[in-house]
What we know:
Layout: H1 7-14, H2 23-33, H3 46-51, H4 57-71, H5 75-109, E1 113-118, E2 121-126, E3 135-139, E4 147-159, H6 161-164, E5 170-171, E6 189-190, E7 195-207, H7 213-216, H8 230-259, H9 264-278, H10 283-300, E8 303-305, H11 309-314, E9 319-322, E10 334-340, E11 343-347, E12 358-360, E13 363-364, H12 370-381, E14 386-389, E15 393-396, H13 399-410, H14 415-421, E16 424-428, E17 436-442, E18 455-461, H15 463-469, E19 470-475, E20 478-481, H16 484-499, E21 503-511, H17 528-531, E22 535-544, H18 549-560, E23 564-568, H19 573-582, E24 591-594, H20 595-599, H21 603-609, E25 613-617, H22 621-633, E26 638-642, H23 648-653, E27 656-660, H24 666-671, E28 674-676, H25 681-723, H26 730-740, H27 743-748, H28 772-799, H29 803-824, H30 832-835, H31 841-859, H32 861-867, H33 874-902
Helix pairs in contact: 4-5, 4-9, 5-10, 5-26, 8-9, 8-10, 8-25, 9-26, 10-25, 12-13, 16-19, 18-25, 25-28, 25-29, 26-29, 28-29, 28-33, 29-31, 29-33, 31-32
Subcellular location: Endomembrane system
GO molecular function: ATP binding; ATP hydrolysis activity
Transmembrane segments: 49-72, 78-97, 241-262, 268-293, 701-723, 729-750, 775-797, 803-823, 843-865, 877-897
Amino acid sequence: xxxxxxxxxxxxxxxxxxxxxxSEEAEKRLGEYGKNELKEKEKISIFRLFLxxxxxxxxxxxxxxxxxxxxxGETIDAIVILFTVFLAGVLGFVQEYRAEKAIELxxxxxxxxxxxxxxxxxxxxxxxxxxPGDIILLQTGDRIPVDARINKEFNLKVDESSxxxxxxxxxxxxxxxxxxxxxTDRKNMVYAGTAVVYGRGRAVxxxxxxKTSFGELAGLLGTIERSRTPLQESLDKFGRWIGGATLVIVxxxxxxGVLSGFPPLDMFLWGVALxxxxxxxxxxxxxxxxxxxxxxxxxxxxxxxxxxxxxxxLGATDVICTDKTGTLTQNKMTVEKIYVNGQTLNVTGNGYxxxxxxxxxxxxxxxxxxxxxxxxxxxxxxNDSNLYxxxxxxxxxxxxxxxxxxxxxxxxxxxxxxxRKYPRLGEIPFSSESKRMTTFNKLEDNPENFLNxxxxxxxxxxxEVILASCTxxxxxxxxxxxxPEQAQEISEQVKELANQALRVMALSFRxxxxxxxxxxxxxxxxxxxxxEEDMVFSGLIGMRDPPREEVxxxxxxxxxxxxxxxxxxxxxxVTAAAIARELRILKxxxxxxxxxxxxxxxxxxxxxxxxxxSVYSRVYPIHKLRVIEALKKKGHVVAMTGDGVNDAPxxxxxxxxxAMGITGTDVSKEASSMILADDNFxxxxxxVEEGRNIFKxxxxxxxxxxxxxxxxxxxVLIAIxxxxxxxxxxxxxxxxxxITDGLPPMALSVxxxxxxxxxxxxxxxxxGLITRRExxxxxxxxxxxxxxxxxxxxxxxxxxVPISKLQTMIFTxxxxxxxxxxxxxxxxxxxxxxxxxxxxxxxxxxxxxxVILQLIVVYIPFLQxxxxxxxxxxxELGSITALASTTLISMEIVKYLNARRVH
Length: 903
């Protein structure tokens, strides 16, 4: 369908035109056809999500136990057990729901965009809003989001391997095809899920969503899937380990209790309650929420993490390989120097304002200077950027190309008028391999009458590439043979401009003979080498892209954090080195390598040098892959930036692939783990800090939970073994588990970064979630909490305190002690007082809420009856609080001694 029709017929059938749909019509069709997205598996309903919280075998046992209790007349116990089970389910539901929402946010933030023509104007919209009849623009690197019929193309090639399995890109056409053309041969169509690898074009949307060819495969491409992270897997293993150990201990103590004369039902209920309290079944959900909240914070710092597992990688990153242009620099190119006719001209003006002069020394260059005019004409025509005025001067397209358009505008060449007057008949797009762009223009009304041809090829690109294709030079008003001496002089000029930290580009042109008539023009019939040979050198252009001020600080932060920064750029070696020195990336004994120098090294030679290299220049995407592999072999965790379609393999190979949000192609974004919304290196460093902080917070709230669980088990174990007394009842254990494992861990997950976080070395990627540090802390503080309870136990027994009051005091002590412990785990290094008590307000609110809930259970009469508590006097409450505070005080002393030992 549509492939066998002329494009005019397709437009008519779909009710559209070259001007695209109106906004009103597009909105109407969106309602009719629905969003352009593939249907996912049916989402679990809120009700089913809530019910899933009660699937645990221990929860089932508790419910059965409550039923048995009710049948035996223990109605209050049964009600309290069911109530706490219900509240635990609500808490688990809230955590799971927030985790799901975090994943959904991630998916919505990473939905791809498309450039569409609406109301005759180009605009960028979410690809989910595309409808049949829309006109979309396709460029190299775009991931195609719909099925569409091509109506314009400039050497458009599409990778359709995701549909056909064929790795060779398909050359696209605009002509209609016979009705019996098989699907794989319909070269005038593009399909959802495929990618543009070369050229550009326009197409009219014919199918969206599940109606596309890819939709029929019922696949899901380019979205974030809910997958378990390595961290969650580690937690599961830890949970199973501690759960097994706990069940053994609990079973032993329960049997011991029965043998000591406690009622079997009471010991059964107590054993299950203690098992529920000791097993950290809520941790995976809390971790997911913590990761999700961290991702949201990263978005505010211009870093969008596409996959949750990559958050864990950020904290271990110790090498960042970064592009230069736009990432380390401002990507606001301004032309400062032009070299034409053997002389260097200065260009005045700032930014994208097309006002400025061309000066030779102190004198202004005449407006009719042929050398400058043909140079700037080529700069404007061999260009895909545009300049327009809207609340100031703005650009569309690549900033480097835009700088050329602005320079041409200063000489009176308006890009939009030139494009209409001298239409482009074809082009060879820029690629990382060719390092040049070539256009083929028709110049009927020849602006420079020396060009004796209506057809002219213009090229721009890397100086060495352009110069190698030139056999002539435009000098003194004539096209002359390019001599070796002149070529050497041009090369020296390139070095001189590069030494001034200017990005240098060369331009050339070639009037074409009659054999290249418009009727015969087709880049598929004329080999590329025929188009781009025998060129005429027209000049050099030097542009400055100043470094971002914040990058210098960010690189220093990386250095302090044990992270090496490596610049990888296509720029000239001298330019790259000059900027790297300015940014303090390139230091005294560091090495620089060009792509060709890298090619000359074998694997062992390169591996011996790779850790000493700070700058790679004149490289191809394949070189990035080689750098990553060499660094990974040396045991480094590598982050790599990229923006082009050819960067995708390197982005996938890196431990942390980082795509550019502004200049990056859809393909590079899809291959990445993270997207920089502002293309700024400083945002990478912010993301690393946030990643480190997320991992730190997760370890801290896990240690908090481990401490609490160990403390509860030890209290009961020692009390039964030593005194044959149950210090806590089953309902009290369940309540402790409910209120201490709920809000405080969530609040700890939003703890801001420590001030010294980016002065620590990257964590060992092999380091497990639970290390000796966590076990020692858990046993130490858990033992301290148990000791506090035993002090109360001994005092109460010696003072003749009733068992109900003893249990109430220990019940309250454990809750208060765990709240003090929550403040311990805001940081394992810094005193809570140096951090500021109120710098984590959610934790303050969580602790206050938990304390109030505990006091309600102790002092409200009907809850006293339910939880077997008795009111405590103010002096008793004060003593318990003072004793519980030793949990915080002891940890403060440990932190102080550790700090003294470090210094």
